[in-house]
Amino acid sequence: MLTKSSARIFFLGGTIVTFVIFIGLSWHTLSRDVPQKTHEENITPAVIAGKHLWENNNCMGCHTIMGEGGYYAPELTKVVERRGEAYIKAVLSSKTPWQPRGRKMVAYGFNEKETQDLIAFLKWVGETDLNGFPPKPKYKSTLNTK
Amino acid sequence: MKYKSQKVAYWFFALAMLLLALQIVYGFIMGFARVGHDVLHDFIPFNTARAVHTNLLVVWLLTGFMGAAYYIIPEEAEEELVSVKLAYVQLISLAIVGVVAIAGYHFNYWEGRKFLEIPRPLDYLVVINVLLFLGLILATLFKSRKRTTTSLVLTMGLVFAALLYLPGMIWFDNQSVDAFFRWWVVHLWVEGVWELILGGILSFLLIKLTGVDREVIEKWLYVIVGLTFISGILGTGHHYYFIGTGKTWLIIGGIFSALEPLAFLGMVLFAVAMYRKGEKKHPNKLALSWTIGTAIVAFVGAGLLGFAHTLPQVNLYTHGTLVTAMHGHLAFWGAYAMIVLAFISYAMPNLTGRKLYETSRGSYAFWLSNIGMLGMTAAFGVAGVAQVYLERKMGMDFGDVQNEIKVHFVVLILCATMFATGITLYILEFIRYGRPTDEALEVPPQRAAIS
Ligand code: HEM
Ligand code: HEM
Ligand SMILES: [Fe+2]
User: Fold this and answer.
1) Is B294 touching ligand 1 by the criterion CB < 6 Å?
2) B140: which of A41, B287, B371, B381 lies 20 to 30 Å off by Cα?
3) Mutation for B interface: A22, A23, A37, A79, most B CBs within 10 A
4) Ligand 2, from B47, B53, B338: best to mutate by most atoms within 8 Å of Cβ?
5) Mean pLDDT in chain B?
6) Average of per-residue pLDDT across A16-21
7) Nearest chain B residue (CA) to A2
8) Does the pTM of the predicted model rise above 0.80?
9) Is B249 an 8 Å CB contact of chain A?
10) Average pLDDT, stretch A50-67?
11) What CA–CA distance (Å, rounded) separates A36 from B418?
């Protein structure tokens, strides 16, 4: 029958082994995979400024990006591809809550530079290689109108 | 209660109750926004409500853990806390930092990273606060010669939880790297070190409530926390499928996270087996219901519903949808909310000397909150699955889909009302207990009896 001390060895040993593997894999990911898959060379000052705006306004509290965030508003990873820059500019600079489909976005009324920075950020995100996310729909729905 | 300093736990529990009530209010604000009554939009937009809802959750759970630790550590170490005064300082500063953070969210003062919205300057205050807490716990443990496995596992969980807060404080230019480290906090907390805290509290409660031999219980505690870390550390990979990381994680994350439910299964088997085995049953039936309930609901919410979307083939479609919200609610409720409520139910009669062991209000609180939460989970689940099919498979527009699934949020609100009724009863019962008193101290000869 299992003794308490062998149970303790199972706990400590298992933890140390998996932890070491985890750190190794993380190192590999951050030093090789991420720079390549996210095209780190394309992270311009505008992209960084856009990321600051993204964080300081907590856009993630409503939207997801790379599938992370709130589930209240559209996933934005591919939004530039889906809507185009002009549409996004209209959303971001709107002085009244943007709500064509009923739900309200905060009316940020961003100026030209802020809008460009955010678009640069969203464009950069849209070009990252996310292992196939978001998935391509199987069917092209007729309801996809607006 | 055996030591005077354990009384400080009461005030942590009282703060936890207050924050829980507020959390639910913000939950309703979001629920109503989702059915089209976003009436508070100008003052509390959805992102504010969400940040407040989830942060209050984390803070009341941590407050509950701290209270539990202040109760458990003296009893396990057989030693008064080194300083009760500092424990009050810690409580008050925690409350102040919390209130400032929550207030800031209403004025666009935050960091905008899900679950880690607390802005940097306040992060430092959190760190200081937690250091003070850990200092008190560790000093008490070191002063005593008695170090039980239960108290060590609990303390280890608390120390690691504090350490893991740090990676979440670093800023990166690359969104992928940001996300990568955000999970070191969020995932390694709930599917790693918090499970140690959960295991430690569970083990303490089972020792007290079932009367089973400590050696037997603590042996299984090691097995369970062993399973937790072996699966949970590499299981972090289930968040690294689609955020700009390599494909290795699809395999590693898939396999190891699929093993994570084993730790929760272990917990159920362990709790139920100890319950069956125990001969000297404690009269506090409510605490026992909450304790066994914790193990069962955690297994369903974290283990089964986590498994449901953890394989990469499934997660590709469910990633970042209401399916995640379904799992998040039942997992947090079962594993962490319930263990705190279980502990409070156990500790209150001992702290106050009022033995409200089997009141009908207490059992209504248990059943209404649990059934209400199961209903909420079902509502989120149905909405989530519909969303996955319509949006991700059929290619319907996000907004159109949300309008289609609105009705499930009416169900959510109804179930949430039932849930909130249960919590209200729980809080009323908490108030009925009154304040802790030294009269509730057990006198030494009675120490042999189970407490
Ligand atoms: C008590 C333990 C657990 C709690 C409190 C919990 C809670 C959560 C929460 C709140 C999220 C959303 C996080 C975010 O997007 O920032 C999440 C995501 C996730 N959880 Fe858990 N969880 C637990 C255990 C588990 C287990 C054991 C599994 C797997 C077997 C699992 C699988 C997942 C997966 C795959 C996601 C990502 C969902 C997505 O892609 O959107 N969880 N969990
Ligand atoms: C009256 C009760 C409640 C209601 C109406 C409610 C509603 C909600 C809503 C609408 C969201 C946002 C989902 C989205 O982004 O669209 C949310 C998020 C969340 N709630 Fe609640 N909630 C309630 C109680 C609770 C309780 C008791 C817990 C914990 C035990 C909890 C834990 C969470 C978590 C962890 C999230 C984040 C989920 C994620 O990001 O995946 N909620 N809640
Ligand atoms: Fe996870």
Assistant:
1) no
2) B287
3) A22
4) B53
5) 95
6) 98
7) B219
8) yes
9) yes
10) 98
11) 50
Residues of A in contact with B225 (CB under 8 A): 11
- A66–B175 C-beta distance less than 8 A: yes
Say whether B248 and A8 touch across the interface (CB within 8 A). no
- For residue A138, the one-letter residue type is K
**Cβ A19–B50 below 8 Å, yes or no?**
no
CB pairs under 8 A between A and B: 226
For the stretch B9-40, pLDDT in tens is 999 999 999 999 999 999 999 999 999 999 99
Q: How far is CA B450 from CA B71, B72, B76, B429, in A?
A: 16, 15, 14, 24
Are the CB atoms for B359 and B366 separated by under 8 Å? no
For the Cβ of B317 lying below 6 angstroms from any atom of ligand 1, the answer is no
Is the CB of B317 inside 8 Å of chain A's CB atoms?
Answer: yes
Instruction: Let me know: does B333 contact B297? Beta carbons within 8 Å.
Output: yes
